[in-house]
Amino acid sequence: MPRVRLQPRPWFLLNWGIFQSLLIFFLCHGTSTAEPKPEKSSYWYSHDYPNPRTEPERCGRSPDHQSWLCDPDDFISEADAMKLDELISSSYSDTRCRCYSCITNSHGYLIMVALMEAMYRDQTQINGTQSTQKLFSDAKRFADDLMHQWGQKSSCKEYIFILFSRNDKVLYTLAEENANKILNNTMIMKVNRYVYKYFSYKEGIGKGLHKMITYYKDILLQRFKDPGPLQSLIPNQVQYSEIQETKSQANSGKYKQFSLLFSICFQLCSCLLITLLQINN
User: Fold this and answer.
1) Which CATH architecture has domain 3-233?
2) Could you tell me the pTM of the whole model?
């Protein structure tokens, strides 16, 4: 497997809504680009990253075990992997996506997970202010490639893909159109905010994934208990402002409707008052 020296970057937890529910949310905990480089670490090309359905051994699984989880760099234990397999399977069987194929075939949303030391990225294009933007683009392309390699074309747009790249500091969730109707941008941002701390150390990754997928399953079953407003969970003011702008637009529409109704009532009352005065005169 090819190797490259990777320069450390700030911790990112990504969640950003773009076409067909590509959702990333990031938190920056600030480090300097002048830090010493780490030891050599391998990276993966999307076309070479193993498929857990056809190459379970390369994904760190037993040869006779098919899974939707791939862990070629050995981040989690076999026990954790088996628990995650069971959770992914129950999410698929217990939920129902809003599509004819899902209903007739008695299945729901399919969650896939890819763990890796690092994604392949063009280092020559990563510098200064372009670094974050390039990271978004690379994560999007990598997750999208793997999702369609593993699951081919989804009949109901029900796929949910979780990608974690440790050296890139990326925890990334992609939800297809049908899945995103329930597992929307705001909910993914909240869930990622709850679990990101577990991904800062290797021993916590398995637990973090279990919590994350459990939250996703509860949301898909519409039994997720929301502990509070999104503002308290998101330190990134720009992204919070975007959500507030959407709410503001909705409130503005309600205000316009109320103003119109008030104006009509006022005019009717005025006409009635004038009529009564004329009758009395």
Assistant:
1) Roll (3.10)
2) 0.69
